[in-house]
Amino acid sequence: MVRFVLAAAFALAVSPVFASESAAAVAPAAAKPKAPSLSIETLDGNTFDLAAKRGRWIVVNFWATWCSPCLKEIPDLSKFDSARDDVEVLGLAFEEIERADLEAFLKGHPTSYPVALVDVYAPPADFDVPRGLPMTYLIAPNGEVAEKFLGPVTSEQLAKAIERSKASGG
Description:
With 170 residues, the protein is an alpha/beta fold. The chain has one domain: 3-Layer(aba) Sandwich (Glutaredoxin), CATH 3.40.30.10. It is 36% helix and 21% strand. The chain has 5 helices and 7 strands. The chain has a 5-stranded mixed β-sheet with strand order 5-4-3-6-7, with helices on one face. Strands 1-2 form a two-stranded antiparallel ribbon. Helix 4 links the parallel strand 4 and strand 5.
């Protein structure tokens, strides 16, 4: 049975007819807007609304409690958030976890910035679904994505990205 399934899969994969039919059936992914929108309730009961944050640099960090590089970022992002008046950080917990469990986790890993729990089955539509964690977006004061980082990011990298964007007129 396994040989039959493998043989059928191979035949379909190399079949030019199947390949052209499947290529025609796949629609291109919708392009994400340059200026994403996001309004989400944070664990502290407030609403974080990107549109209301125009004029400031926003760091949107997708992370999870089980992600070691994500946890390593928390203290650095907290310091970055506290040290700069022109920057705000938002943590988006991207995992299946109960709110109470996330709140308990954050007692041992406190942040200086707001955190929201994201439904992994209905993530924010204007952001790419993270292909890995951590995934960080740097949003410019005009509301547009200035830079994306897949994998760990440091405050130094964020500061350099802000300076690059400013230098290029962003």
